[in-house]
Design a protein that fits this description.
With 76 residues, this protein is an alpha+beta fold. Helices cover 37% and strands 28% of the residues. It has one domain.
């Protein structure tokens, strides 16, 4: 089963994070909110990118998740 990717936002610090890591749900206790979920990393990333652009926030993601998606795309 593929991971569920979440888009977290922290408006106080102006940051957006794309993550498929379950441990990042602990960010909710630190003032982050989940604003989007998707099974597809690219779709989650594009949503996060558009949101960050619209609000002039910093966009963050895990390179290892992006690499995994790109590797899978090359194989298929």
């Amino acid at each position: 089963m593929s991971p569920r990717y979440k888009v977290f936002v922290n408006r106080r610090v102006g940051r957006v994070l794309v993550s498929g890591k379950p441990e990042d749900e602990a960010l909710i206790d630190e003032g982050w909110r989940v604003i989007h979920e998707n099974n597809d990393w690219r779709a989650a990333f594009e949503f996060a990118r558009d949101y960050a652009d619209k609000h002039d926030y910093i966009l963050e993601w895990y390179l290892e998740e992006e690499r995994e998606v790109l590797k899978d795309a090359l194989i298929n």
